[in-house]
Backbone:
């Protein structure tokens, strides 16, 4: 998807299982490629942890752009059948098995992260882009959702923290309590994303912004992120509290009943989740 | 205003003096009906307190939709001639006579509240919708105002708390210091409401959202509201401080002089308040 | 630029070196007039300090409208060749030489301040309008930028504090890390300003709002500002921390190298800064 650049020596490829990663100068482009629907399972989490670790130790890397290899799904959501493995994979970064803490690590990193969103991004996928430093989405295709409250639980990796700070109490309550799908236009209006752009312009816009930012001194990235995060990034304690409440919630009988019903209707299958907002309302 | 539903057994009517309340499944629809202009006086406050108490004790009730029986006024504002009686009525909920504390109780309740706004909503009316969990307004008819600073006082029931958190310092200062009327389009842009919708679509939109939310587990409502409120709902102390400052303010000679002048120009009458933003600028 | 008024006795002119100040009733109109490009140097800072001091001691003054005598520049940015003198001038207000503390004094003042923005407003200029109580900009001509991170430093007078609270983490990080120019339409969407208005309507809109606010009791101005600031205005400690980090940053070799390169390309000259967002990306 990226354009050819002149100096081939600067373009490298790093090998991962579920990420297509290429490097151009100080920018890494990481496309999520976990068929059939970019579920967040342990392999993808391991790759993300590994990518962050490698990038943080390489001072020449300044910016990571996250995108998707699947036009319909950016990250669908966590693989609910593998929560234990997911937590083990997440624990490899800082010792804490909460995915929310992995995402908070990304938010607090000296690395600048940009999410380039096409297709559906729900549940922990939405929490992943919220943890990135900036979010730009294709107006025609991007769809956002935090469907967890349809199963009686709070999102487990920071969504309530980020959404409340970005869009205020009323809109955050609507988005969470409705558990519905939102298009890019409303996501922009509510502050879920920085901007919705025409799909045809999105790639050029994000590339240009990524290289621009990467060209400025790293000292500026660090001090700006530190000062902004001191105001607007949830504390590790608040992230942990949401994670704990999520884990409590998924042990409730009502959660299990609804999840079984959802599985029967095709939850975690590509076709059925094209309209997940509708599916969860029919349980 | 509500559509017929199949299962009549699920549809009940509760009787109040100033509220038309009907129940459909887990949703209560409460239309404010306090002619001639939906002033918030002690009868309406008593009804609201009673409705909240009854709904909270009935676990089958999950969502309350507030609307108006008057197309021109949702809630005009507090009846300034009956502040002592209003406070007595408010005190029946939790023992605290501040209307702001009644509203904070609603914000913190396990019940999900949605304001469906047509017509004017000013002063404590605006504070009432701000205390609700979500706000949707008719693009053509809804008008918003916090006119209290035109009389030299801060709104007494939480407006400064909510507006500052929803729209930021600059827009909150504009709205409060101008004491002017704002239409639904700007209210949406500023974050005063979730969304402005065409009047013809508003009722269907809110009904659909209310039943959708009501169909999800109550455990999810509670945990989501708790976590969002922990970030974005003003403390009881801050609500109390605003209430105290309001009461101090209304004893000032300048407040009394302006209020007398406003009364002479028709303040608290239906016709004169159609353009209240203009009226308060002419005192 | 202001319209003639009936009662000439109410119209006074105050004399400053870099500000054209006229008074109409309770409103001061202060046009920044520091050719060739409205750089913020010690003379302009001295004038601003003096204007604030005089206005605060005159109880009949309620509102100050800041505008520009230069259609292309509101305030370009701080004069980087005179930082020591600037700090001496700033120290005259409250003894603290940080410009951020002068701006915070304005935010906390009983005076209501409105920025009427045409042309470019970058660096400390943007921080100045952010410290004002409200911001309205000409849709066709206003351009906003915090370019400091292009030199590896954080803005020194509060931009990160204000922008993060106004627009949230993602958009604040974009604006700061991109160090780019933003037009009035996006500035409005992001919450950097209250509203973008057609240039032809801006002057009338701001005049009308200024006189409206000035006509309401001073007690209301004070209590509203106090309560809103208690929620949304950064503490003096946070303003000081940003100022200290800025001063640390400008002593770095990388800052000096980039600033020298910028000077060679015309930084701090009127023509070259018409497209400053581009200039800083080419260093």
Residues:
């Amino acid at each position: 998807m990226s354009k050819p650049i002149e100096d081939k020596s600067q373009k490298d490829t790093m090998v991962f299982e579920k990420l297509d990663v290429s490097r151009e100068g100080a920018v890494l482009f990481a496309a999520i490629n976990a068929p059939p629907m970019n579920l967040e399972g342990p392999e993808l989490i391991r790759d993300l942890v590994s990518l962050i670790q490698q990038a943080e130790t390489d001072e020449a890397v300044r910016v990571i752009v996250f995108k998707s290899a699947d036009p319909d799904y950016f990250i669908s959501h966590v693989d609910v059948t593998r929560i234990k493995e997911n937590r083990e994979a997440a624990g490899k970064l800082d010792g804490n098995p909460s995915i929310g803490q992995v995402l908070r690590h990304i938010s607090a990193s000296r690395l600048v992260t940009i999410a380039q969103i096409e297709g559906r991004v729900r549940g922990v996928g939405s929490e992943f882009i919220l943890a990135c430093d900036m979010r730009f989405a294709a107006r025609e295709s991007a769809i956002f959702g935090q469907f967890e409250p349809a199963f009686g639980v709070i999102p487990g990796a920071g969504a309530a923290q980020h959404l409340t700070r970005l869009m205020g109490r009323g809109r955050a309550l609507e988005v969470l309590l409705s558990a519905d799908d939102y298009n890019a236009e409303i996501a922009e209006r509510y502050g879920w994303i920085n901007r919705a752009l025409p799909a045809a312009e999105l790639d050029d816009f994000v590339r240009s912004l990524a290289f621009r930012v990467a060209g400025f001194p790293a000292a500026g990235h660090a001090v700006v992120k530190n000062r902004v995060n001191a105001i607007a990034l949830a504390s590790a304690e608040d992230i942990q509290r949401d994670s704990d409440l999520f884990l409590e919630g998924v042990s409730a009988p009502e959660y299990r009943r609804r999840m079984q019903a959802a599985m029967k209707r095709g939850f975690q299958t590509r076709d059925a989740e094209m309209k997940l907002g509708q599916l969860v309302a029919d349980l």
Observations:
- The first strand of chain B starts at residue 11 and ends at 15.
- The interface with chain C takes residues 148-154, 160-161, 164-165, 167-174, 176-180, 189, 238, 241-242, 245, 249, 252, 254-255, 258, 281 of chain B (CB under 8 Å).
